[in-house]
What we know:
236 residues; Structural Genomics Hypothetical 15.5 Kd Protein In mrcA-pckA Intergenic Region, Chain A; Pseudouridine synthase; 9-stranded mixed β-sheet; 4-stranded antiparallel β-sheet; 6 helices; 30% strand
Amino acid sequence: MKERLQKILARAGVCSRRKAEEHIKKGRVAIDGRIVTEMGLKIDPDHHLIEFNSKPVSSPEEKIYILLNKPSGYVTTLNDPQGRPIVTSLLKKISSRVFPVGRLDLDTEGALIMTNDGELAQRILHPSFEINKTYVAKVAGRPNQMKLQQLTRGIELEGRKTSPARLKILNTEASTSTIEITIHEGRKRQVRKMFAAIGHRVLELKRIAYGGLKLGSLPKGKYRFLSKKDLKKIFS
Ligand code: URA
């Protein structure tokens, strides 16, 4: 997108817009190797080399935040030695290098936040924020209340008790149950391990909310950009 040269220099943190005008007048700014002194020139910084005092001006990378409805069968790493599909391949026309915030198993579906903002990703993942993640799990059999209470209170997994969880039975079928579970920890395959520990294997798993940010009706494999308001919801 074309923008005024002064604005590009200011946004890149070189100087203020007013100062930029002075620098341009004094011949300190070049485009594609040629000094420009013309005022108000509009150029596309993605297609031209802009230099200030002979040094390239790099525009600060725009931060983007995405909510993807991850389908099963995609890995959340940025490359996979086994050649399985990676989640970033579902993003179209995004030139910035975005990465998933945290992980979802290959066979888990649902809400995955992706961004190029390392700082925000660290905050979201930091255990001190205890951000709730809500999943819908289809499990084998019909776990009774006593077993579910074990998960609610916390259960020993690999020598360490899990934090209390919130559980709600959504549906019981002939040989399976659909249960909503909310946890704030992020141990590897935690939900699967928790249900396995009470003897009920997880058959399907979908994350439906990240903090107060809900997946809603976003179709499988599709994504949407998150607004500032959405980002706040993650921490609410
Ligand atoms: N818990 C799991 O078991 N798997 C996931 O992908 C996420 C949470």
